């Protein structure tokens, strides 16, 4: 009887170890989100819905931000394949939302407004 219990314990131990390895391997195979800042880099335009004024938003490769050629003092708080969030010197967040191809909108917490974005060179 004792030999049978040891054998069952050994089989259970091996099954547990091998299932743990297979779970770790499955996790490694999942596509990692694109956390490349290059996805967000570019010059974008947006229209302020309050006054219909067109603005220019520029994001550099080192994630410096300018609006209408005025640099913003921001720090990166979150970066993944669907959003990039900055925090300004006053504590407000500027969150850029993206689809699988490019940034599409941003939310300015200071203005409590979401703006649609498109590449500067795209046709209206």
Q: Can you tell me about this structure?
A:
The protein has 2 domains: 1-30; 37-119, Lipocalin. 23% of the residues lie in helices and 39% in strands. It has one helix spanning 2-29; strands at 42-47, 54-59, 65-67, 70-72, 74-79, 83-88, 93-98, 103-108, 113-116, 118-119. It has a 5-stranded antiparallel sheet, with no helix packed on it. Strands 5-6-7-8-9 form a 5-stranded antiparallel sheet, with no helix packed on it. The protein is globular. The termini are far apart. The model is unreliable at 17-34 (pLDDT under 50).
Features:
124 residues, 39% strand, alpha+beta, Lipocalin, globular, 1 helix, 23% helix, single chain, five-stranded antiparallel beta sheet, 2 domains
Architecture blueprint of SSEs:
Blueprint: H1 2-29, E1 42-47, E2 54-59, E3 65-67, E4 70-72, E5 74-79, E6 83-88, E7 93-98, E8 103-108, E9 113-116, E10 118-119
Total discrete domains: 2
Q: How many distinct helices?
A: 1
Radius of gyration of CA atoms, rounded to a whole number = 24 Å
Question: What's the order of the H and E elements?
Answer: HEEEEEEEEEE
- Secondary structure class reads alpha+beta
Widest β-sheet, arrangement of strands: 4-3-2-1-10
Give start-end ranges of low-pLDDT stretches: 17-34
Q: Helix amount, in percent?
A: 10-25%
User: N-to-C terminal Cα separation, in Å?
Assistant: 81 Å
Question: What is the β-strand count?
Answer: 10
CATH class of the largest domain: Mainly Beta
Shape: globular
Q: Using the coordinates shown, work out and report the CATH topology of the largest domain.
A: Lipocalin
